[in-house]
Specification:
The complex is a heterodimer of chains A (255) and B (370). Chain A is α/β, with parallel strands linked by helices and 255 residues long. Chain A contains 10 helices and 10 strands. In chain A, 42% of the residues are buried. Chain B has 2 domains: 275 residues, ABC transporter involved in vitamin B12 uptake, BtuC (Orthogonal Bundle); 88 residues, Arc Repressor Mutant, subunit A (Orthogonal Bundle), CATH 1.10.10. Chain B has 16 helices and 4 strands. In chain B, helix 2 packs across helix 3, helix 2 packs across helix 9 and helix 14 crosses helix 15. The longest helix of chain B is centred in the middle third of the chain and has 42 residues. Classes of the chains: A alpha/beta (255), B mainly alpha (370). Chains A and B meet through helix 4 of A and helix 7, helix 8 and helix 10 of B.
Chain lengths: 255, 370
């Protein structure tokens, strides 16, 4: 299978303090992959490093065999909801259209076609009725769906989503999952920073366990084991007893 | 109104409009303090450029000073990046140093020039009509008007051209970067515009009013609208209104023009803060009060629905029982019942309450929502 994202020897450090240490990661094309790990494990930093938003100390990132700068138009990014100011004076439709700015390019303005595309994406996430609302009037789940619509209009091949399930209602969670599956059905690759370990086997095909180093990555059935989770989270995996029925497989190579 | 008065107001209005343009983005980027830093830190730039050119109205002066402004932004970032101090502290550390260097330079070497420390802070709008632009023997009006006009048009052009890019970089710098829109370059371009505007406005209105005009009208506009284009337009309008009304306030009080203009900026903000249609304090309070009453009516309908067609309905639907069951005061219960009857949610028959069809629907909807 084609490799969508190929990360090798990626290291990020704040001064002499490593945040990500020698990360290798291959994400096959067309899968939903979760990145899990404790707080401070570097999950968000990994995404930002791949996208060139934080400086890397070493390593290389390839998106479909080319450096990221050459593949911008094939990459969609959904940052954490809290990373923007929702009091910003703009409408829901406007935020979604921002996803098209890359295609529009410098200096040109979005027009009728872009508006139609954005409305279409809003329909897909069940938010078309909110198109002209000011964004501060949205609930957390609605904000997340707007961000997803914005990613949808980018029509990328690879998506990076930073905690899309954080603090959303059940309706939004179902909407996100339906959307992720639709994206996979269209052959897209989605990398999701995820917090809820319980839902990993249900929602995702592959998983990466991260705690500064890569503990393991691969198909959920192979690497989402108690042993790996213990290595990732320290001793605190008692809440994952439900997983115990599965046979533990040998440890993946660490780091 | 004399021609001088008209010219002063015209210059003040153009200064206000020019400041409001980059100011809107400063406020949205939560960098309002940067206007304070830049408008003060350009002083050494002005002084040094003056030493080099010997002319207070040279365009080189503006460029030199604007460079100091951009240098300020860069220095703040350098200090901030050490992570030894936070950004607000970094701003507070950098600009007073640069500003005081400028003050010392003036006191030491430029004591006899028109560059005194009073004018630095408050400017002297009243003197603006005396410095005239004369070309080929024709008096074209105050020089400041042309200077500010050019700077203002530069701002209009910059924002009109890069509106989409500025909006994206301000709202979501991360996405802007991944889409290749160079938010760092836009950031410095914007800071360059802030610096040029501050330098040009500085001579007329001084550094304090520059801050007031860059931060006040956009902050007021932000309370009044929820679309970016409208907010920018409204910022310009509010700036002009503050400038002109401030001039007449100064006239009436025989006070400092710049001071009166800054006061009007504050007055307009205060008015919006209190009375803005959706975000003003009054609107928020009224909404809260209204919510309290509608919520109480909902509670009443839910209570009645729970006990409807049950043996205890007789007892539970009595008005005086509400006081005990919902722990409402007699007065409050009475008002809620009156409102509910008015809204046709319940009907009263000899001391007992019964739900109407509308009341039943409201109660069911409220339960489902919860």
């Amino acid at each position: 299978m084609e490799t969508a994202i190929e990360v090798s020897d990626l290291t990020v450090a704040y001064r002499d303090h490593p945040v990500l240490w020698d990360i290798d990661l291959d994400v096959p094309s067309g899968v939903l992959m979760a990145i899990v790990g404790p707080n401070g494990a570097g999950k968000t930093t990994l995404i930002k490093a791949i996208l060139g938003l934080v400086k890397t100390a070493a390593g290389q990132v390839l998106i479909f065999d080319k450096p990221y700068e050459k593949q911008r138009h094939r990459v969609g990014y959904v940052p954490q909801r809290g990373s923007v100011d929702w009091d910003f004076p703009t409408s829901v439709l406007d935020v979604v259209m921002m996803g098209l700015y890359g295609k529009i390019g410098w200096l040109r303005r979005p027009g009728r076609r872009e508006r139609a595309q954005a409305l279409d994406a809003l329909k897909k996430v069940g938010m078309d009725a909110f198109a002209n609302r000011q964004i501060s009037q949205l609930s957390g789940g609605q904000q997340q769906r707007v961000f997803l619509a914005r990613a949808l209009v980018q029509d990328a091949d690879v998506y990076f989503m930073d905690e899309p399930f954080q603090g959303v209602d059940a309706t939004t969670e179902r909407a996100i999952i339906a959307l992720l599956r639709e994206l996979r059905g269209r052959g897209k690759t989605v990398l999701v920073v995820h917090h809820d370990l319980q839902t990993v086997p249900e929602y995702f095909d592959e998983v990466m366990l991260l705690n500064v180093r890569r503990i393991a990555s691969g198909p959920v059935a192979d690497v989402f084991t108690d042993d790996n989770l213990r290595l990732t989270y320290g001793g605190r995996v008692a809440f994952l007893k439900a997983q115990q029925s599965k046979d533990d497989v040998p440890l993946a190579k660490v780091g | 109104m004399t021609i001088f008065q008209l010219e002063i107001q015209l210059v003040a209005a153009v200064v206000a409009a020019a400041c409001a343009l980059p100011g809107a983005f400063l406020v949205l980027r939560q960098m309002a303090m940067m206007s304070d830093a830049i408008s003060h830190a350009i002083l050494p730039g002005i002084v040094v450029a003056f030493f080099l050119t010997g002319d207070l109205s040279s365009p080189l002066l503006i460029i030199g000073a604007a460079l100091t402004g951009v240098l300020t932004v860069a220095l703040v970032e350098v200090v901030n990046r050490t992570q030894l101090v936070k950004e607000d502290a970094a701003i507070g550390l950098v600009f007073p140093v640069l500003f005081s260097i400028g003050v010392i330079l003036i006191a030491r070497y430029a004591g006899d020039v028109h560059l005194d420390t009073d004018a630095v802070l408050l400017g002297e709008l009243a003197l603006v009509p005396f410095d005239r632009l004369v070309l080929g023997g024709y008096d074209l009006g105050p020089r400041a008007l042309y200077l500010m006009g050019v700077v203002g048009l530069t701002g209009v052009l910059f924002i009109a051209l890069f509106y989409k890019e500025l909006k994206l970089a301000t709202f979501d710098a991360g996405l802007a970067a991944t889409l290749g829109f160079l938010p760092a370059v836009l950031h410095y371009a914007l800071m360059g515009l802030v610096s040029v505007t501050a330098v040009a406005a500085f001579d007329a209105v001084g550094s304090i009013l520059v801050v007031a005009l860059m931060v006040g009208p956009p902050a007021t506009a932000h309370l009044l609208t929820d679309r970016l284009a409208r907010m920018i337009g409204l910022s310009v309008l509010l700036g002009v209104v503050s400038a002109v009304s401030g001039y007449w306030l100064a006239h009436a009080l025989d006070a400092s023009i710049a001071g009166s203009m800054a006061t009007m900026v504050g007055v307009l903000f205060g008015a919006a803060f209190l009375f803005a249609p959706h975000r003003g304090i009054v609107a928020v309070m009224r909404r809260r009060v209204r919510q309290r009453w509608t919520f109480a009516q909902k509670m009443l309908t839910i209570h009645l629905l729970h006990h409807e067609d049950r043996p205890e309905a007789e007892r539970e639907s009595r008005i005086d029982h509400l006081q005990e069951h919902l722990q409402w005061s007699a007065d409050f219960a009475g008002r809620v019942v009156r409102q509910s009857i008015q809204n046709k949610l319940v009907i009263r028959t000899n001391g007992h309450l019964a739900l109407t069809e509308a009341g039943r629907r409201l109660a069911r909807e409220a339960i489902v929502q919860a």
